[in-house]
Design a protein that fits this description.
Blueprint (H helix, E strand, L loop, with lengths): L5 H27 L6 H17 L6 H15 L13 H12 L24 E3 L16 E3 L8 E9 L3 E9 L11 E9 L5 E5 L1 E4 L5 E8 L1 H8 L4 E9 L2 E6 L1 E10 L4 E5 L5 E5 H8 L1
């Protein structure tokens, strides 16, 4: 989806506000007809509507984001809880509803903490919600865990191939914030980070990305070796990271080599290497010579 103009963003919030008004009008009709006992049927739609609107909150203008949660929660406090018995994937919807009621704009798939960026996942493939227990309202809505929906990808900063020569470093691979795919190419981004292992200084190079099926991000990056020349001359190793963007969320991940990654070393100043943990680094040529000696 293309970037939205201010007019389009205002329209999105008006559409949401109109949906709240429509639900209220239906409630008044049901009350006038003595049919409030059947309201839960309509509230199935309300729950699904408002969790869907919350998932697009990042597209709203700042003042609309501030108005969103008070407006929707004023309405949701009166819904018929029997509606939860009839929604598809009830545990997942309850979890989304928990995040909505507590004003957390990334819904169930990401915490409000940019530094974490995603919920912990158990080895058997479930979102682990236990860290939220006892810290927020509506605790009864939140199960301990919910199975990750099919199609969502775990975090990844994976190198498939790289070449280092005297003039350039080229890399290609995949990047993904855990279980939070970008909604469009405009909401996606990857920056290559070269980090000096000794000083922790960082140098950043934007990568070119392509959005693949299931909204996975494939990247290609080209780095001028001159950016590394002073570090390598001082016998300092450069570690490689990706900074991955999905919407407004950023996450920095260590670049990890695929087991079948192809590394080409054709330069004199340094060498691409893979650590015992599978992480990718560039070491000065003299270090490699000492290792072989």
């Amino acid at each position: 989806m293309r970037n939205l103009s201010i007019t389009q963003k205002n329209f999105m919030f008006r559409a949401f506000a109109d949906r709240v008004r429509i639900h209220r009008e239906i409630d008044r009709f049901l009350m006038a007809q003595g049919l409030l006992g059947h309201r839960y049927i309509k509230d199935i739609r309300a729950i699904l509507d408002f969790t869907c609107y919350a998932s697009n909150l990042y597209r709203y203008l700042p003042h609309a984001r501030r108005r969103f949660f008070p407006l929707v929660n004023h309405y949701l406090q009166d819904i018929d809880v029997r509606a939860f018995d009839y929604v598809p994937e009830p545990e997942l919807v309850r979890a989304r509803y928990f995040f909505l009621r507590n004003g957390m704009p990334f819904e169930f798939a990401a915490t409000a903490s940019v530094s974490r960026g995603y919920l912990p996942v158990t080895p058997d493939g479930c979102f682990d919600f236990r860290a939220f227990k006892g810290k927020h309202a509506f605790d009864h809505l939140l199960p301990d865990s919910v199975r990750v929906p099919p199609g969502l990808q775990p975090e990844k900063a994976e190198l498939l191939a790289a070449d280092l020569c005297n003039r350039a470093l080229s890399l290609k691979g995949f990047g993904q914030i855990g279980y939070l795919p970008p909604r469009s190419k405009q909401d996606a981004g990857i920056t290559m980070i070269l980090q000096n292992r000794t000083t922790k200084e960082e140098r950043r190079i934007p990568a070119v990305i392509r959005l693949l099926p299931q909204r996975r991000m494939r990247f290609v990056a080209a780095v001028d070796v001159a950016l590394l020349a002073d570090w390598l001359a001082l016998q300092q190793t450069a570690d490689l990271f990706l900074e991955i963007r999905a919407g407004t969320l950023l996450k920095k991940l260590r670049l990890h080599a695929d087991p079948h990654a192809k590394l080409g070393n054709y330069g004199r100043c340094g060498k691409l290497t893979v650590t015992k943990y599978g992480n990718v680094s560039i070491v000065p040529a003299a270090v490699e010579q000492r290792k072989r000696a």
